[in-house]
Amino acid sequence: MADKYDLIVIGSGCGGAASAALGAYHGYRTLLLEKNDFVGGRCATRDIRGFQMDHGHLFARCDKGPHGEVLRIVKSEDLIPPFVYTDDLEAIHLFHGKMFHRKEYHFDTFPMIKIFLVMRNLFDFRTLDFIEGARLIRRIRRLSDEDLRALDNVDVATYVSRHCNNAFINDVFGALGAVMFGALPEEASVGELIRSLGMGKSPYKMSTGYPVNGEGVSAIPKSFMRAAERHGARVRMKTPAKGILVEQGRVRGVEIEGETIYADRVISNAGVRETALKLVGEQHLEPSFVSYLNRLKYSYGGISLKYALDRPIIDFIRGNKVPSDFIRHMSDAMEGRVPEEISIMSVCTSNLDPSLAPEGKQILVAISPGPAVEPGKVRWKPWVESMKRQIAELVPGINDHTLFCSVSTPDVIAHESGRFFGDAVGVAQTIDQIGDKTPPAVSPILGLYNAGADVGCEGVATEMATQSAIDLFKNHLEPS
Ligand SMILES: Cc1cc2nc3c(=O)[nH]c(=O)nc-3n(C[C@H](O)[C@H](O)[C@H](O)COP(=O)(O)OP(=O)(O)OC[C@H]3O[C@@H](n4cnc5c(N)ncnc54)[C@H](O)[C@@H]3O)c2cc1C
Prior knowledge:
The structure is a single chain. By secondary structure, the protein is an alpha/beta fold. It folds into three domains: 4-46 and 65-73 and 213-296 and 428-477, FAD/NAD(P)-binding domain (3-Layer(bba) Sandwich); 126-197, no CATH class; 300-417. It is built from 16 helices and 19 strands. It has helices at 14-25, 66-73, 112-123, 127-141, 145-150, 156-163, 167-181, 190-197, 219-230, 272-280, 287-295, 326-334, 349-352, 381-394, 410-417, 462-477; strands at 4-10, 30-33, 45-48, 51-54, 59-60, 83-85, 91-95, 98-101, 208-211, 234-236, 243-247, 250-256, 259-268, 301-309, 318-322, 344-347, 362-370, 402-408, 448-450. Strands 1, 2, 10, 11, 12, 13 and 19 form a seven-stranded mixed beta sheet that branches. It has a seven-stranded mixed beta sheet with strand order 8-7-15-16-17-14-18. It has a three-stranded antiparallel beta sheet with strand order 5-9-6, with no helix packed on it. The longest helix is centred in the last third of the chain and has 16 residues, at 462-477. Flavin-adenine dinucleotide is lined by residues 10-16, 33-36, 41-43, 55-59, 240-241, 269-270, 302, 304, 367, 413, 417-418, 424-426, 452-453, 460-462, 465.
């Protein structure tokens, strides 16, 4: 008989790689199958002509959150990559058409009165706006975890307008929900948003950072893979799972090209819907479950431009562009209309870790939202052109110093990650898809589980993916 494992993990994204590390640590004879020749899925970093180019930018909480927690659980703290926290580093924001520098306007340490003066000068903030905003923030800071759970079913737009009647403040909260969850203010859960921002009373405190060991963002999934192998997991790259073998409602193994590998437990990181519909097959599932999966809403798709620059021209770490009427632009983008102005989040990753670029060169990674659609449905050229125009506003002269610009559209993301859509984050954190309504980690097929951002319950994007693996083991797979 062919090989038999205790556990097969499909996919090496954050959720899959973390699952393999936890599985192997807990004594399961573990095999990880990855279809690509690189690790990390949507959290990959690729070598493009000597430049290490990321998909994403930054991590929330870094080693203080689940990314560090997985490696602590599996007794591999030494594998936690070094991080720099970016909250205090130089940032520029082109916000509603006005440029400001983070060092000048360091809101965290500013007295309230100074914040007010800045807001008044920059955005014509009135005294009443300020009082309303300060009251709302004070109210939010007092919310306990329990209060936040009770707010899981309330959308951001309703909550903010309940407590303050101010278009600008509505816009700011709506924008945060849209950026973090890929969901518009009428859909995004305010409980989830406040929890993920770490603004309530819970110990979760939001911060952002970046690993600086020369591997870019892929340092996270790669560190999990190293831990998995340290504990005896076997890894097969360039090995797509073609199907999950199911007999009498139970998992029996995974089919790869020309071979079946047997195991009584499978954790799939391939996406909750993709796993069920592509790998298991509708014939093994209740029609009601299939129609539930088909109704899931997804986060926005990420259009990512990776600039290789011939010399250092950027002195910031983070450069953001937020257009006025952000929410309208964001909903245009998510619904597939090229917005007149696209919001841009960019990071000069080589200013964080110079070893990512060849000596004397620089990297800028910029991302904008677009629709999460099936590959081939959207012509991305106008989106990319619009983004390039706006990046040139943020970094004047960038085009004269660009050696090449590598573009990854949602089509590329869908292709690379094997997902139906090129969504950046995963299943969207809308009020009907979070908390106990998050898609299930435990599949209706016995022995089949999901790990990844689709089924994660806490935090932001990669954090959710990694947390999903921790929760899965804690709740279902830790040997007693
Ligand atoms: C452009 C962009 C920018 C982003 N920026 C950030 C950011 O700054 N911060 C942040 O926290 N998050 C960011 N995200 C989101 C974050 O990257 C994802 O939410 C997270 O990485 C998803 O991880 P996952 O575990 O769900 O798996 P995925 O990353 O989706 O990985 C799934 C893996 O499974 C493999 N696979 C699929 N099917 C098969 C199969 N049949 N057989 C074998 N292997 C298979 C895939 O190849 C892939 O490696 C960004 C995403 C994008 C696209």
